[in-house]
Design brief:
Number of strands: 7
Number of helices: 3
Distance between the termini: 28 Å
Structural class: alpha/beta
Order of helices and strands: EHHEEEHEEE
Oligomer: single chain
Shape: globular
Length: about 150
């Protein structure tokens, strides 16, 4: 039987980084435990209320955050606050499948459009790799707002 996976990010600002990845992957923030959110409700406001109600000190309310695939297919992403800076290239990175099934100029145009969308969300572009069939169909290397490398592929 296969296993479910949660991907954990160390972060300085878990809330902000979770918002970036929520928007990048079209994910959602889950509701707090035991809270039923009405349609259109802001889950982050619900979390703020929940943490106050639970007596969590204000300086600890950004110690973690999470996002989930609303369709239940992709892995849950968890963000935990750490004091240290990122000092080296991450040894695991995400490949964001933004152009499945596409090849050549059409593929690269879709990747470039997604790159522009993610730049507006706070990502940084690192470099573009041109298609080199049969082993590579082309991809764009990027970094999230805290410097974690990922690829648009």
């Amino acid at each position: 039987m296969s296993r479910h996976v949660q991907i954990t990010f160390d972060a300085h600002d878990p809330r902000a980084l979770s918002c970036f990845w929520r928007d990048a992957l079209h994910y959602v923030h889950p509701a707090p435990p035991g809270v039923e959110l009405p349609e259109g409700a802001d889950p982050m406001a619900a979390w703020d209320e929940f943490l106050v109600k639970m007596g969590v000190p204000e300086d600890q309310r950004n110690s973690s955050s999470a996002v989930e695939d609303p369709d239940g297919q992709g892995p849950r992403l968890f963000f935990q606050q750490v004091p240290e800076d990122k000092v080296a290239k991450n040894r695991v990175h995400l490949d964001v499948r933004a152009a499945p099934g596409l090849q050549g100029d059409e593929r690269m145009a879709v990747l470039e459009a997604e790159c522009e969308r993610l730049l507006a969300l706070g990502a940084t572009r690192v470099e573009r790799h041109e298609p080199a069939p049969p082993l590579s169909f082309g991809f764009i290397v990027m970094r999230d707002p805290e410097g974690n490398e990922f690829c648009l592929d």
